UniProtKB/TrEMBL annotation:
Residues 16-61 form the GRF-type domain. This is GRF-type domain-containing protein. It comes from the Eukaryota. The keyword Transcription regulation does not apply. Pfam families: Zn_ribbon_GRF. PROSITE patterns: ZF_GRF. The keyword Transmembrane helix applies.
Amino acid sequence: MSGSSSTRENMAAPICNCEEKCVIFISKTPKNPNRRFFGCPYFNFQENMLYCDYFMWEDDFIAYQTTMVELEQTNKERDVINSDMGVKVNQFESDMEHKINVLERDIEVMKFQSESQMKRRNWKKYVGIVVLLVVALVIVFCIWKHTKLFK
């Protein structure tokens, strides 16, 4: 970078370590002739002026910016997917809660029906036992009455 270079302002540029907007220089070195790079705006400005030595090739910066735009787009797409997933999860939870409530209600109805059927069965048993006792008493009474008549 000690070779000569020219500068040009650029609207989309990185910020150097001095927190200044970088400028574009054009390399005049034999290894990278006419290759553009970003550098501190104070680079080679004055002999005694301090600068931060920030350096980035323009094509590397463009590639970095492209990657960042792609990442941002990917993040937006992921956010949309996550939002859709959130809506679907909420709907699923709501559906499951409704189904659970229906099942719990059905269980309560079945318990009530089962208890009612058991009560009816028990009542029928008791009625049957009472009828048998009454019939047995009538038979005993008839036998007693019949035996008393013949004596």
